[in-house]
Amino acid sequence: MNRPAASSFLCALLAVCLAAGAEDWPTFNHDNRRSAVTPEEFTVPLARVWTFQTPEAPAPAWPGPAKQDYWHGHYNIRATLAYDCAFGVVGAGDMLFFTSSAGKVYALDAATGRLKWSFFAEGPVRLAPVVAGDRVYVGSDDGCVYCLSAGDGSELWKLEAVPGSRFIPGNEEIISLRPVRAGLVVDRGTLYFTAGLFPTQGAFLFAVSAEDGAVKWQRKIDVSPQGYMLASDDRLYVPTGRTEPAIFDRSDGQPQGTLPSAGGTYALLAEDVLVTGPGRGPKEIRADDAKTSDTIATFGGLRMIINGDTAYMQSETKLSAFNRRLYLDVSRKKNKLIEQREKTAERLKKADKKSPPAVEAEQLLGAIDTGIAKLDTILKSCYLWTVDCNYPYSMILAGDKLFVGGDEKVAAVDSNDGEMVWTAAVGGKAFTLSAFGGGLYVSTDTGRIYCFRSGAGDNAAVTTIATETAPYPADELTPLYRSAAMYIAE
């Protein structure tokens, strides 16, 4: 069989497989709880079958952080607002969708990577779209939410969150005073979104009809909503970047308090536990009781995946798995002992050192310390495996394999024992991963999207698809135009 015929046959075969009821990835990190878990199975090795290159690399909304925060004693600070470093891919059936900071929405054929349609908003689109049925929903820095036809990209409806909002310069872009910077949630016919960055300038939470955009309720909020919003059956959890996540009632938007956190836009909701972090301080994530807001445990890591009784934790240099139900149960008991110890120590300070109450408090402190030590031993035994892993930028679980993204590389790890079973090279930092319809999609900070598939073979033909060139190609006057635009914007 000649190469063109073989390529046509492969594309047709992939299209059939994609239409055969494979698992979709309709929103960022798979679902509204941002679990990053899919039953999609992959057989290694995977082969790269196409690469899509956008005209421009992502231009994040916020610059990187300062290297030190001397006031709080934080050094080598991580960005707390790094939610748009790559173009996150979502997909359903035989199509995939992503958005760009150039304000463009893309729809590609998942089998071939060919562009099927595109759509322009009137401002940067910072977060991944949501696919629901035959519709695609996106929110833009222009302060609007768009509902598009998944089939051809036609605009079905558009809602300006706060009509008449001014446009202002924002990090080298012209944006609405009330941009949409929290990931959309679509569930049971309702679309939830936020608009606005600064409460003093007006920040809002909305619930609208996913069918026609009719507003069901809206509420002014006192937080800066940024990052991917999460949803349980009755609550919305809104990351805020530099401060703790805020909680709202889904029925009417009533505020339900906040959760203790050092900030950051990463969040995961598993049953009644919300995992957040790592924030601007120590590189740790927290597990909090989503109902009571009590802190259950802290971990030295960047992100976590929870699948049944097992949790997988990713740090700068390690990857580990542990029994999370046992770990959280023991952590709760340890927290109670720590609280009891603090009260006992305070009581001891106020008592006469030789009095019976003081002696009793001393004995109780000893017993508490022994109990805490025993619980620490149990906590250590909860870990199933820990391996070195220099892939710190992203992580998803597909079937029995963890896929992790690093600097110019991506890898698959056996979730049962931590063994690395496959690696591949990519260009740039692999900040987002998606898996659906038999494809693993890797998005990097260069604006490239890579598609890997099982069974394609090591010698599979790789198709590289470059999008249209920029509408105004650079020339010798480009630096002058850029300087003039920046002067005007300032």
What can be said about this structure in brief?
With 490 residues, this protein is an alpha+beta fold.
Q: Strand content of the residues, in percent?
A: 35-45%
Strand order of the largest sheet: 1-33-34-35-36-37-2-38
Overall number of strands? 38
Low-pLDDT segments: 1-21
Global shape: globular
> How many helices does DSSP assign?
4
Structural class: alpha+beta
Rg, rounded, reads 24 Å
Distance between the termini: 61 Å
Give the proportion of residues in helices: 10-25%
User: Sheet bearing the most strands, described?
Assistant: 8 strands, mixed
The pLDDT mean sits at 87
Record the SSE blueprint:
Layout: H1 3-18, E1 37-38, E2 46-53, E3 68-69, E4 74-75, E5 90-92, E6 95-99, E7 104-109, E8 115-120, E9 130-132, E10 135-139, E11 144-149, E12 155-160, E13 167-170, E14 173-176, E15 182-183, E16 185-187, E17 190-195, E18 204-209, E19 215-220, E20 227-228, E21 230-231, E22 235-238, E23 246-249, E24 255-258, E25 266-270, E26 273-277, E27 285-289, E28 295-299, E29 303-307, E30 310-314, E31 318-323, H2 324-350, H3 356-381, E32 383-388, E33 394-398, E34 401-414, E35 420-436, E36 439-444, E37 448-454, E38 463-466, H4 478-489
What does the model show?
With 490 residues, the chain is of the alpha+beta class. It has an eight-stranded mixed sheet with strand order 1-33-34-35-36-37-2-38, with no helix packed on it. The chain has a four-stranded antiparallel sheet with strand order 5-6-7-8, with no helix packed on it. Strands 9-10-11-12 form a four-stranded antiparallel sheet, with no helix packed on it. The longest helix is centred in the last third of the chain and has 27 residues, at 324-350. The model is unreliable at 1-21 (pLDDT under 50).
